[in-house]
């Protein structure tokens, strides 16, 4: 079972992009990617909203996510969110054990 959280960071005047740039250049994003239980930590930008960046944040289980939330990096993240005056929206998904029968619809 995996947990996926899509986080939408929205700011003004390019602040969400600047936040992502600092997360990557400072090494915070890479440190999160190295945390036990992290399966994906990747930023994307919606084509119809240049002031928003979406983070796909996937963890092996709830315990891994909880440990991340209690790590010192969360304080660093909070400071950067404040620095760039970002507002957030979250969507949470849990994987289903077993195979979904969607392969027939995918072109590879």
From TrEMBL:
The keyword Ligase does not apply. PROSITE patterns: ABM. One of its GO terms (molecular function) is monooxygenase activity. The keyword Hydrolase does not apply. Pfam families: ABM. Residues 3-94 form the ABM domain. It comes from the Bacteria. Keywords: Monooxygenase, Oxidoreductase. SUPFAM superfamilies: Dimeric alpha+beta barrel (SSF54909). This is Antibiotic biosynthesis monooxygenase. It comes from Limosilactobacillus rudii.
